Sequence to fold (204 residues):
Amino acid sequence: MTFRHVLLLCLALTAPAGCGSGDDTTSATDTNGSRYFGDHPGQEETKAALSSADCRALKRETEAGLGTSLHAESEPSPPSSRCLLRGRGTAVSIYLDAAYAARQRYYNRMVEQDQFYGTDPAKHPHPVPGVGDPGAYGHTASWIPALSTLYAVRGNRWLTVAYSVPGTSRPQRRDEAATLARRAFRVTSRQPAAPRPSPSPARR
Fold:
């Protein structure tokens, strides 16, 4: 079974009602007005986010690898958080999507990429083992060389790491993006504790 067949199988298992912009993604919304992607148990929105502290840690790790200083810009608000690193021609972006059906949308994105650009190796998704959820063929992490971008999913957390550094090869950029993705998955696995209910006022 090829990587392409695995993606199609995963999409079929996670989206029995449709794919991409099909019937299950038309106009339905949840109570918060968010786009609704059909019924996907286990893919509920979470508070997972790249915090400002996480972004600083990713910045230090990237600077150590490059040997140069970078400017960090953080947007830590869940369910769509990001960490942007810039400096001397370097552009590294780490996005975390923890909204409802993020896993579904990852598979949609990869299948659509394959369908449109399957004959072009530079634009075709290439599996990257050891980054996303464990599984055969590494279908939960995909590198697209032409975009210099890694897409990966663990549970309902979808990470997108765009890595552009002058003077580096595509394999080097893939490996560095994978390292950052693994680190980002680790730091965002910590879920904020639910607030404790306030004690009931004593009756008189």
